[in-house]
Amino acid sequence: MKKVSSHRKHLNFLSFSNKKLSFILLSAFLLVTVMSCTSVRVAADFDKEANFSEYKTFAFYKPGIDKAEINDLDKRRMLRAIESELITKGFTKSETPDLLVSIFTKSREKVNIQPSGMYPYGYGWGWSPYYYGNYNTVTTSTEGILYVDLIDANKKELVWQGVGTGYLSSSSKKKEERIKEFVASIMEKYPPGAENN
Predict the structure, then answer these.
(1) What is the pLDDT of residue 196?
(2) Going by C-beta distance under 8 Å and a sequence separation of 6 or more, which residues neighbour residue 138?
(3) Cβ–Cβ < 8 Å for 98, 54
(4) Residue 27 has pLDDT above 50, yes or no
């Protein structure tokens, strides 16, 4: 009888452990998914002949900004965020600027199909490596790309370009925060080598 009781306790422990492991795996998956949706991937390129220490003033390049395919509200949010970042870096807005600032945007809808391997049991959801039904999670999201161009005002040549790629929000409050995050992440790369300081 003792052996049977011990075996039952072992099975109960395994059942509890599997439920706990299922919860941990699901939590980890959701955390990775959320983190991948919130992060902004950035890159920058620049003219190695340019002397970035000479640039002290800026203005927005209206012809380039007018071409950006984005609504006026988001455009203003982006420009305010860029202006704030440049002022923080010691720039001054000027009628006779050293740098002209332009933006360019792209967006695309992404459909994500995630085979969950999930099935209902008991009072919640569990995971089983032995059961794969047609329980797929289908979500859509908008991936946006923001280019920030800095143009030498005298030479009319592009001297620096930062690019940020990430997911966008449709909520106006979250959108404002997200745009600030995009711009701040991109402008961390300016001037060249700044992220290594």
Answers:
(1) 62
(2) 111, 112, 113, 114
(3) yes
(4) no
